[in-house]
## 1
Amino acid sequence: MLQISYFAWVRERMGVAEEVIALPAGAATVGDLIAWLAARDERGARAFAEPQRIRAALGGAMVGAGASIGDAREIALFPPVTGG
């Protein structure tokens, strides 16, 4: 099982802060997971309409869309952040 945490406008569009899913077959990378979430339902389509804008962290470490999910137990998905 994979715990997905959503932040900022991704959370708002998904309508939940987190969920636990069984990793779908064929979803080996972060990009695969984002594509699956986008195709799953209308909420996902809205949240992930621009997948290139989504940032991800696996186990607290920032990763790119090509990163393997492997046996990760948690992933965070969020929009770009700015700081000051």
## 2
Amino acid sequence: MARKHTRMVIAYDFDGTLAPGNMQEYDFVPALKMQPAEFWAEAQKVAQEQQADAILAYMQVMLKKATAAEIPVRKEGFLEFGAKIRFFPGVEDWFERMNEYARQKHVRLEHYIISSGLREMVEGTRIAKHFTRIYASGFMYDHNGVANWPALAVNYTTKTQYLFRINKGSLDVYDNTLINKYVPDEARPVPFANMIFIGDGETDIPCMRLVKDHGGHSIAVYDPDNKQRNPTLKEKARQLIEDGRATLATKADYRPDSPIDHAVRAMIDKVAANALIHDCAD
């Protein structure tokens, strides 16, 4: 009898995890005639003065500054900004490689984004087609297609909500019926033990800890080319292992035979082996 495929999920942060830097800094912030440090300082100032969520503050500053600079803030424009984002080595063919390896192990692998960056920019990237869902901060649009209000703000604490949505199969962000309903662990579509979370920093710690504490794996990555600007990145990633928050700390290099490539294949093997043991027990 043919074996059925078991489901497995890899959830990713975006900025600093799949792509260097912050997505807003590639083209959007320069279009405002601002330096990245200046933009983020103003967003932080707004957050402090208004006692506002930092994500909502940066989204408000984006709209305010774009309007002042007469830059259209339409979804199509954000998609165009996203199309120019570059990625760490190996990212663009990573998903198909991992999917194929998982298929050979009778595992159906799904990929999700959980990011504080902009949903519309991620949707414009060359890799957007590989994600089952993109959970990221996003805007509402008026009848002219112009962004006028935040639709969703994803910060470091609310990120864990989307792991629970995946775990329970409640994928639509507007629907709170299933996410708040008691569902026995054995009835949940994707156990946390079948999840991997990949992130790059302190804002990812709640997700890393949630997945790892429930039997899954968390990977902390760092930009190997950013050591001169921020030499503590590698040490911070390794500290997450010492603190029990991550399974692995490694450079953001997704090419074949890289450390993360070997590690994720081993994690897929583990899920496949557990599923086979379970099938034998039946």
